[in-house]
Amino acid sequence: MNSKNITIIGGGNLGSSIAKGLVQSGLLKPEQITVTNLELHLIQHLKDEIGVNITTNNLEAINNSQIVIVAVKPTVARILLNEIKEPLQKGKQVLISVISGIKIQDLEDILVDVPVIRAMPNTAIAIQESMTALSFNEKGLEHKDEVVEIFDQLGATMIIPESQMPAATVLASCGIAFALRFMRAASQGGIEIGLSSKQSLEVAAQIMKGASKLIIENGTHPEPEIDKVTTPLGVTIKSLNKMEHEGFSSSLVQGVVSGHKKILETES
């Protein structure tokens, strides 16, 4: 893996986050990574900050790489894929798509006989804390170990059937926004009860980190951990019951379900 070059087509938020995560993980050297974008000035910061190669020439970048990550918007995906299909079909590159809503079959319809992997990370990939779901076509499975190695360096990975990708997209990718909205709301509550804005945000961020590590490292379910701090007649249970009365859990569940329906509509 350390001898291979990677091209990331599309230097937006997600593409840039992947580049930063790969460099920070130490899996690849900056000079092994090339990021492309139609407007070079939009990715100049990547060259300045982490030293990766940047270019507007997709074909040249692909020809110099063994792994190609496509991170463009769904609206331009098919046009882009048709532009790059010839070198991909002639070469031996592995294509990893992080394009939301574009199925493996859609990719195979354009890219004949190309190893294809569909990946759905989130923006925490920039700090190597993504939750990334992976699905493979038959040829892509031949490269499973090296693809998992890449994304394991950038957080945690989960291999799933593609039929579960819409659900993984909502919970893993959109879920970052859900968690951050909870953090913001909790910090606003902290301000109302007397903490400064800075103090409230620091506390809210740390409690989310601590809660996550309790579940990940102990392998427990949230409820036993909640029980540890909900004493009879106590403050925690009073607060939780008020939140549930106002629809806390229900609104979150409905938000996740609503997002899933939206994705299914987009993919149909």
TrEMBL record:
Described function: Catalyzes the reduction of 1-pyrroline-5-carboxylate (PCA) to L-proline.
UniProt key word Cytoplasm: yes
GO molecular function, one term: pyrroline-5-carboxylate reductase activity
PANTHER family documented for this protein: PYRROLINE-5-CARBOXYLATE REDUCTASE, PYRROLINE-5-CARBOXYLATE REDUCTASE 3
Any single GO CC term annotated in Swiss-Prot or TrEMBL for this entry: cytoplasm
Native source species: Marinifilum flexuosum
Top enzyme category: oxidoreductase
Annotated binding of NADPH, by residue: N58
Gene name, Swiss-Prot/TrEMBL: proC
Protein name: Pyrroline-5-carboxylate reductase
